[in-house]
Fold:
Amino acid sequence: MYLSKLFIPLLKENPSEAKIKSHQLMLRSGMIKQSSTGIYSWLPLGFKIMKKIEQIVREEQNKIGAQELLMPTIQSADIWKESGRYKDYGEEMLRIKDRQGKEMLYGPTNEELITEIFRASVKSYKSLPQLLYHIQWKFRDELRPRFGVMRCKEFFMKDAYSFDISDEEANKSYNKMFYAYLKTFKRLELVAIPMSAETGPIGGDLSHEFVILAETGESKIFADKRIFEIELKESNNNESIKELRKIYDQFYAVTDDKFKKDEFDKKVKKENQLITKGIEVGHIFYFGDKYSKPLKCSVDLQDGKKTNVKMGSYGIGVSRLVGAIIEAKFNNNVMKWPESISPYDVAIIPSIKKNDKLNFTKAEKIYNFLRNNNIDALLDDTEEHLSAKFKKTSSRLR
Ligand code: ATP
Ligand code: MG
Structure:
């Protein structure tokens, strides 16, 4: 791409509504534009980065055998009435009526819809286990949208769902996801710690939030520092993944809703105690038959009996990650992108003098060579002074 052609509406000043660095930098570098409160358009630069994150998330889901599908953003209220959550979800749910007066909603999550899809086609234990996921926009009418894409109303989420015949089998699916999450965040060069968490409106009794440390995070965390030193070993079977989870479970790490001071003091020596803030970038839940029971989603077992399928759900905030990565890595007002998601691989910044096209011609040669070799290059073809170019183009690259 030639820099002069790039659609990148820069802002000179910090917009007053942007209170934290990631929000300011995303607006100023033309990555996003607010469309209304808590709703953003993703402009080319921001979109490109988000798509790269999405692709890493997808690859790690596929590696553990999860299959991608795509459910709609608009759902019928009927299935939510069946599960009992239509009332419970409250004002965070955006409710809509179509022209026939049928009650619809913009999906805040997809447990009901995936259960409906599953129950319509799967009847036998032989088809289990199953792991299904999609990467789709969600809408939650947050009371206080803030921090740009980190807490907004419309956001892009990967949500996966597991289906198993027993708690024991379901635990294997849960652990696989646990592992896939650790791998995903590692590829994004983030240290995301799994913390025991409350399950909230999703329900159930086993849950981990994946949290990255950041001063501007909204989650208060209490942890044994040593959890940050665990090395992520390649694990390719249920046993080794189970072992890995055991290693994490040894160390105390909780968010504030699960925090108990006496327990913390008892389990963690003073010098290992870490109390700080973080950003939740993923959340996994196991909730057994919480949805399959009311939605009557069962399979036939070998002995002819029926059982409600045991389910879990697993979310990653793909759009939140864009802001979270900036928060975790920025330095001196400059965004630092991990190589795996940087918008361009290489920037070429020739010194262009008026009436002398030699440097530019050389730069174009390099540019074409890189492009022909599938290396995504940005060529600064503007006539600005070289130092100004370095500042602008290199900050875009990182
Ligand atoms: P939070 O506690 O931050 O409100 P949540 O627990 O309600 O999030 P989940 O239902 O666990 O969210 O959703 C899965 C993931 O989706 C979260 O871990 C987060 O990364 C992302 N997410 C949730 N709500 C938002 C939002 N309003 N804006 C952007 N991303 C979000
Ligand atoms: Mg959560």
